[in-house]
């Protein structure tokens, strides 16, 4: 049989992935021993913020495959999780494996053990996971974590409100989005906003994930969030004669300007998730993780999810991620075995998909992304994982607050967008310097 060059390339890629899977999941790594030699009895301690039920079946199947390994999973309170990890590792009694947020590497890389090339190399990582996984978990070439799933910001909209106003399809770009504001926004006879068209323009005080939304707008505008040396923040700085970060902040905050044509929000309104669930706001931006939360608030709300709007002139889409992976801590006495478990949970199609089905989250593996593209609930998020991009946040919580305060400074009239962005940029730079 004569195969063309493209066919040979495709076949080679498929065989390469198969070899990776065979190498990981048939006992070759890391348990290869001389014939008849007994494998050591291992106990791996895993900490996470997920309910244990999400891992139960997969951990059981791993223990059946690796009969010498026992896995103890402990669910930790999300409110104290990060600090609990820090305290446990400092005391020398931390877990072998932790659920690791996609923004944590700049802050916590020195607490982790990287993955050996013999178990999975960077080339393989790029072939089986989207670009953002490398960006977040292997920025310098060493792999420090692998994703369980990849969630992204998307547009949630009230289908009944759209139908009532004769809007057939969700906006694809920001210009289309702006043009919907006057059609969907409602004011009383005194000009007071009664039903917002969209939750955008306010701070984290009233808009869930407001800081993430602003970061996305900056990235879509072409802002360079930090310098190449990761020594300072640069999102307020000049890029090719423009100030894309400042422009993004202006665009965002104008939605809270009562004099603006596209005014649709203010920080005196009810929280965006509650407002949307009550049917009072036509559109919000959030992650797949909030779908069930919204449904629990109002089981009768008829809402849909659409892809995130992009700049009208954009050559390619940019989306914003929020997800967790798994990493091996430097407290682990069996890091190779710990990584073997992580590879089993994240890089095995069947195991990874089982986790997705139980957790109802969008996929991280490219093979599953392809499979889930047309999924009725997760398809939007699956597709967006391929264009997700992030930036190295030195401290997620602190930066979220800095961005929220930046928004407040502009919408209150305390500072203009340029001054507020410059001030926030310096605050983030100070955080980065303090961590060095």
What does this structure look like?
This protein has 436 residues and is of the alpha+beta class. It has 18 helices and 13 strands. Strand 1 (42-48), helix 2 and strand 2 (69-75) form a beta-alpha-beta unit. The model is unreliable at 6-18 (pLDDT under 50).
Give a short synopsis of this structure.
The chain is of the alpha+beta class and 436 residues long.
**Model regions low in confidence, pLDDT < 50 over at least 5 residues:** 6-18
Report Rg.
Answer: 23 Å
Largest sheet report = 6 strands, mixed
The proportion of residues forming helix, as a percent range, comes to 40-55%
Overall morphology: globular
Q: How many extended strands?
A: 13
Please, how many helices?
18
Strand content: 5-15%
> Structural class, from helix and strand content?
alpha+beta
C-alpha end-to-end distance: 59 Å
Overall residue-averaged pLDDT value: 93
SSE map:
Layout lengths: L4 H21 L16 E7 L7 H10 L3 E7 L5 H11 L5 E5 L3 H4 L3 E2 L8 H7 L2 H7 L8 E2 L3 E2 L1 E5 H6 L9 H11 L1 E2 L5 E3 L14 H12 L22 H10 L18 H6 L5 E4 L4 H7 L5 E4 L14 E2 L1 E6 L5 H13 L1 H11 L6 H7 L6 H7 L10 H16 L5 H19 L1
Parallel strand pairs: 1-2, 1-3
Antiparallel strand pairs: 3-13, 4-13, 5-13, 6-12, 7-10, 7-11, 8-9
Helix pairs in contact: 9-10, 9-17, 13-14, 15-16, 17-18
Features:
436 residues; alpha+beta; six-stranded mixed beta sheet; three-stranded antiparallel beta sheet; 18 helices; 13 strands; 12% strand; globular
């Amino acid at each position: 049989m004569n195969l063309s060059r493209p066919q040979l390339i495709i076949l080679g890629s498929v065989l390469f992935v198969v070899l990776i899977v065979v190498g990981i999941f048939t006992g070759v790594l890391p348990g290869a021993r001389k014939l008849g030699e007994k494998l050591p009895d291992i106990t791996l301690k895993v900490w996470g913020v997920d309910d244990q039920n999400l891992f139960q079946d997969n951990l059981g199947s791993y223990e059946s495959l690796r009969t010498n390994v026992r896995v103890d999973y402990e669910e930790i309170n999300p409110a104290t999780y990060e600090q609990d990890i820090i305290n446990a590792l400092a005391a020398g009694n931390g877990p072998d494996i932790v659920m690791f947020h996609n923004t944590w590497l700049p802050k916590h890389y020195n607490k982790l053990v990287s993955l050996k090339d013999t178990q999975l190399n960077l080339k393989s990582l790029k072939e089986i996971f989207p670009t953002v996984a490398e960006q977040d978990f292997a920025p310098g070439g060493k792999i420090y974590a692998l994703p369980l799933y990849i969630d992204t910001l998307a547009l949630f909209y009230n289908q009944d409100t759209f139908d009532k106003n004769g809007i057939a399809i969700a906006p694809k770009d920001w210009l289309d989005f702006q043009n919907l504001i006057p059609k969907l926004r409602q004011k009383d006879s005194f000009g007071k906003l009664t039903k917002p068209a969209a939750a955008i323009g306010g701070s984290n005080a009233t808009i869930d994930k407001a800081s993430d939304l602003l970061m996305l707008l900056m990235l879509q505008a072409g802002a360079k969030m930090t310098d190449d040396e990761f020594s300072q923040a640069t999102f307020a700085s000049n890029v090719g004669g423009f100030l894309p970060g400042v422009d993004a902040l202006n665009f965002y905050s104008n939605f809270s300007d009562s004099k603006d044509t596209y005014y649709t929000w203010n920080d005196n309104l009810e929280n965006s998730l509650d407002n949307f669930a009550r049917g009072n706001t036509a559109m919000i931006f959030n992650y797949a993780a909030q779908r069930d939360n919204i449904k629990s608030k109002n089981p009768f709300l008829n809402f849909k999810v659409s892809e995130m709007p992009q700049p009208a002139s954009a050559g390619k889409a940019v989306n914003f991620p929020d997800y967790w992976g798994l990493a091996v801590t430097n407290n682990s006495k069996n890091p190779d075995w710990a990584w073997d478990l992580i590879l089993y949970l994240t890089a095995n199609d069947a195991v990874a998909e089982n986790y997705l089905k139980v957790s109802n989250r969008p996929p991280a593996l490219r093979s599953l992304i392809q499979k889930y593209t047309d999924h009725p609930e997760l398809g939007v998020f699956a597709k967006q994982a391929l264009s997700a991009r992030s930036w190295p946040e030195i401290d997620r919580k602190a930066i979220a607050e800095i961005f929220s305060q930046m928004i407040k400074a502009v919408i209150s009239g305390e500072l203009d967008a340029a001054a507020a962005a410059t001030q926030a940029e310096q605050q983030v730079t100070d955080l980065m310097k303090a961590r060095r």
